[in-house]
Amino acid sequence: MSYKYIVKQGDLLSEENATFIVNASNTRLLLGSGVSMAFKRHCGLELQKEMTTQLDALDHPLKKGDVIMTSSGSANNFKYALHAAVMDYNQGARGIDKLPILEDIKSALNMIESYLEWYSQEQRDDNIKLVVPLMGCGVGGLNKGTVIELYNNFFKRNILFECIVVIYGYSEEDFEMIKSTMN
Question: What is the pTM of this model?
Answer without folding.
Answer: 0.95
